[in-house]
Amino acid sequence: MTKRERYRQVLEWFQANRPIAETELHYTDPYQLLVAVILSAQCTDKRVNMVTPALFEAYPTAEVMAASTPEALFPYVRSISYPNSKAKHLVGMAQMLMSDYGGQVPDTLEELIRLPGVGRKTANVIQSVVFNKAAMAVDTHVFRVAERLGLTTDSKNPLQTEKELVKHIPNHLIPIAHHWLILHGRYVCQARRPHCEACGLQPFCRYYMKSSAV
């Protein structure tokens, strides 16, 4: 099977079997999503969603958060991984939104990665989810699933995976494909015990073909 054919079959399967796929983080505006994604680094969406209601009630806008301090914000995020650094990043991010962007979340990779706590993955999430841009955020799930399916081969890092996926996935499908791969990795193609027996992607999956041939 050629790589082009594998991509075609995988994408067609997702389109038919998961026509709706979106972030599991709870948010109502770009500012809230940016806060949630920063908090979600090395932390589950479920945990983030437990924390953000009280956080957003106390800090409903970037302006309010920018006027706060990491020490004041810390109690709201203390159950999140790396709470000290994330509290500092959130306040710094809000302050830069106010000083440089009029309180609005910017829409380009270059501007987003200037914000404290925002790396390439977070910036791509915002570009994709908020602005529907053809940006592929690669987390551990996307990295693993892409390699197992055979969409990538011996990818060394998330950037290599991102470039390969963007190269082969049509632009209009990239925003939803990001969620397809994440959700598939989260609930089916799990790291330690992938549920291959329940996976409809078996016929196109390089990992399954290798493991079933042993």
Mean pLDDT across every amino acid position: 95
Say how many strands there are.
0
Shape: elongated
* CATH architecture classification of the largest domain: Orthogonal Bundle
CATH domain class of the largest domain: Mainly Alpha
Residue stretches low in confidence (pLDDT < 50, at least 5 long) are none
Quaternary structure type = single chain
H/E series: HHHHHHHHHHHH
Q: How far is it from the N-terminal to the C-terminal residue, by CA?
A: 19 Å
**What about the largest sheet?**
none
Q: Within the CATH hierarchy, at the fold level, what is the topology of the largest domain? A: Endonuclease III, domain 1
Helical stretch tally: 12
Domain count: the total is 2
Structural key phrases:
mainly alpha; Endonuclease Iii, domain 2; 214 residues; Endonuclease III, domain 1; single chain; elongated
Question: What does this 3D model show about the protein?
Answer:
The protein is mainly alpha-helical. It has two domains: 3-21 and 136-213, Helix-hairpin-Helix base-excision DNA repair enzymes (C-terminal) (Endonuclease Iii, domain 2, Orthogonal Bundle), CATH 1.10.1670.10; 30-129, Endonuclease III, domain 1 (Orthogonal Bundle). Helices cover 60% and strands 0% of the residues. The chain is built from twelve helices and no strands. The protein has helices at residues 3-17, 30-40, 45-58, 62-66, 70-77, 83-101, 109-112, 120-129, 140-149, 158-168, 174-187, 206-213. Helix 9 packs across helix 11. The radius of gyration is 18 Å and the shape is elongated.
